[in-house]
Amino acid sequence: MNGSNYLEIPGHLTLAGGNGGLAKAVVETRWSSAEIYLYGAQVTGFQKKGEAPLLFMSGSSKFQSGTPIRAGVPVIFPWFGPREGLPAHGFARTSTWDLVETSLLDDGKVRLCFSLQSIDFYHVQHIVTVGETLSLELVVTNRADSDAIFETCLHTYFQVSAIDQISITGLANTGYIDKGRDVGPLETSPSIRIADEVDRVYYDTAAAVEIEDPGYRRTIRVEKSGSLSTVVWNPWIETSRHMADLGDDEYLQMVCVESGNVGKNKITLPPGETAVLKVELSSQPHG
Length: 287
Ligand code: TA6
Prior knowledge:
This protein is mostly beta strands. The protein has one domain: Beta-galactosidase, Chain A, domain 5, CATH 2.70.98. It is built from one helix and 22 strands. The chain has one helix at 236-241; strands at 13-17, 23-28, 32-37, 42-48, 75-76, 98-104, 110-116, 122-130, 134-142, 148-150, 152-154, 157-159, 167-169, 176-178, 191-192, 198-202, 209-213, 218-225, 229-234, 254-261, 267-269, 274-285. The strands form four sheets. It has a nine-stranded antiparallel sheet with strand order 6-7-8-9-22-18-17-13-15, with no helix packed on it. The protein is globular. 6-O-phosphono-beta-D-tagatofuranose binds next to strand 19 and strand 20.
């Protein structure tokens, strides 16, 4: 981090060596604290004062170049899911981004702007704003002279008190594909409960989603814009056992509710245009 001290903000933002020696920004505001790795421009932690962490971090996560970090909000770009001969979920999450700008906003929030280097055809920024809420913006500009076609996703891992106690609302009457079962029904349940492996891509939905967590006595809210897909994932027992970077029982404390544009909602962007995927993550304690 030599030479980047000018990006630090006394009392609010320090640059430090994180796990595996990877550089991270540590942020403090009057409402919350957060950690963001330059590797993947990945928020790995966000916690409001007096509350449980909002984001889940696997105790077995690797922190090494070439391997994604299993925590927080991996930035998925320019494709979602597997690609023959290429890294799953694109290369953004395994690239080291430049931290190009930091600022303390008038209202006390801290804003960080990361830039993804050396992709000829795209200019990509990830803007993270830490305050009472956590706001993330993935900003992609097409610098080529023909249409760019790509997928985006903010693959958010939430920490929950107990997976079988939570309920997820906001997706009723939305069509989805369950990856495991390869079916395409409409969500009939106004309130989704998880009692098995769930790996669903909900399409054509711009709706906010809420996660009700009675154990932590809070409701998490995912507000989004520039996104037509919502992914809900929990690996459950068998899949977890095959994941080297997730403890066998950690599926009990996590759920992914991801905002993006994937599959049939992939983005076609004309030359010179910009697409912005924005999410605002908040939590409301129960009274
Ligand atoms: O978003 C859900 C998903 O695509 C699942 O299919 C599951 O594989 C998960 O992401 C994690 O993928 P990863 O490459 O991080 O192991």
